[in-house]
Amino acid sequence: xxxxxxxxxxxxxxxxxxxxxxxxxxxxxxxxxxxxxxxxxxxxxxxxxxxxxxxxxxxxxxxxxxxxxxxxxxxxxxxxxxxxxxxxxxxxxxxxxxxxxxxxxxxxxxxxxxxxxxxxxxxxxxxxxxxxxxxxxxxxxxxxxxxxxxxxxxxxxxxxxxxxxxxxxxxxxxxxxxxxxxxxxxxxxxxxxxxxxxxxxxxxxxxxxxxxxxxxxxxxxxxxxxxxxxxxxxxxxxxxxxxxxxxxxxxxxxxxxxxxxxxxxxxxxxxxxxxxxxxxxxxxxxxxxxxxxxxxxxxxxxxxxxxxxxxxxxxxxxxxxxxxxxxxxxxxxxxxx
Length: 337
Hints:
Blueprint: H1 10-18, H2 24-27, H3 32-39, H4 43-59, E1 77-78, H5 83-88, E2 93-94, E3 98-103, H6 109-119, E4 132-137, H7 144-152, H8 154-157, H9 163-168, E5 175-179, H10 183-199, E6 203-209, H11 211-218, H12 224-245, E7 249-253, E8 255-257, E9 273-275, H13 278-282, E10 287-293, E11 298-300, E12 303-305, E13 308-314, E14 322-328, E15 331-334
Helix pairs in contact: 6-7, 10-12
């Protein structure tokens, strides 16, 4: 497909032609920084170019070009907004693939997800992706007050970023909230509204909180076959969005008790709980993280918190390790040894 077949600003098309990029599909095989260097276009022009190119290729699917989309960004990470936890994750969440964060109720999973919704809005040089987030709630209402508190604390917790940058970021305007009360509404959200936000470049992070709630409530134990089919359909939608838009997907998961003496490899050996939804779900996850509460109390200025531990259960690029953390006004922050 050539440039005469797409609707794009003539100035951008001229810059692309000067760079000797003859087809739309060539653009999708080049990373953002390389496109800026080759064409001399601004970051916003490059983003517009990639959205138009991606849309054009979806209308005329060839070979698996979308799998090559942003190939040069394979090492890009989304920071969690904490140097200690970023060190554990080698920079943060990978931009491609599904990451699961599981743990018991009240351990801090949602708070870490809210942090990521703010972190994604920073430029890439500060660990973000220069875009917004879409947050799908399946059980509890969205914690608006806690998000506002985290926004107010950004100037304190993000000392690595210029204060004028933080002041100019309208954080709350770029977190899109969706509520899914059942699997049908969740599927509509993933197939219609979320792709629209991604295609327009408004978001670059998808959060589902939580993945287990609907599958646990809508199926009985005897319906395991139908449940697994629905679960695989849901996973397919997540992987499609992550690949097509090179977007990190974070799924918060509940846990189930592990009976004493059972040989369960789905969670860390040090825990007596395991992530919900079993092996069918586990096989669809690229990175599995788990948070658990520890005994005792830790202090930070005038604040106190029960210690938590974020652990890597499995990931192709990470060692099985963990870091201790506390939950403060400014969010989930790792505790240095």
